[in-house]
Amino acid sequence: MKTPATWLLSLAFTLSVGVAAAHGQDKKVGGPTPAPAGAAVYFIDLKDGATVGTTTTIHFGLRGMGVAPAGSEKADSGHHHLLIDVELPPLDRPIPNDFNHLHFGAGQTEVDVKLAPGMHTLQLLLGDKNHVPHSPPLMSERIRVTVTDASQASTAAADGVTRRRHPAPAGAKVYFENLSNGAIVSRTLTVRFGLRNMGVAPAGMEKPNTGHHHLLIDAPLPPLNQRIPNDFNHLHFGAGQTEAKITIPVGHHTLQLLLGDDKHIPHDPPIFSERISVVVTSNGRRAHPQADVHPHREHCCTPAAEGAVAAH
Fold this sequence. Notes:
By secondary structure, the chain is mainly beta. The chain is built from 1 helix and 19 strands. 3% of the residues lie in helices and 33% in strands.
């Protein structure tokens, strides 16, 4: 059964292991990028047979390698892909990008995923800079989970609770280091995040006067007393990243940075950048008015944020 998946966000830690070869699936040869001996990818907080709510947080674990965004040339690194209700794809080709093959090309290490009630399978598959599995391929155990409505109410209630907001120091500011309003950019671009009078700390670390970045694409500011959504229009950088490589469609788009605390909630007062408009062209240069740029799109669409966070 193929089921569309949408996203949100949260935190939790325990352990469930999976290694390069998965449950019921043979070891196969992957692409041209080698994986070091002993490397393993696994679900941190999910086990086979778990019962979860319709919205659940999934944390991705990786041993013996580093997480790096798609396009990075860093050795012994890769980025995560979450397979939902599907078998492994060909392991010597780019991993598909659709509702059943979710890409985390910005280096994210967690996501809140929403699934319909019923039985589902989940599996992690690591990809190299070009989204091709390594050799040998690094995949988690393929686990089965049961999604029930029973925990939906409590999960939704917890998500909607107004939590205590951490204070932001006077003069704190977040901004784009390499982009300005009206910039013309190519479809794949690197966005650098600037921060003054505060420090960057990963999600889950409760340290005074710190936070981590969130990039809003074609979206207004969310409620500022709740957790920032986690989807293709709200990219989380919970590992403390200060830059990301993203891919967005040709056209007019808006970008804005919003700082979150250890629980992904904006500070008090909230620290957010100017909301800037950028024009995306196929080659990053100004195009003829009718040649390259399409009308503004309110949403980024599924492949819009191929680079989403390097990990909570």
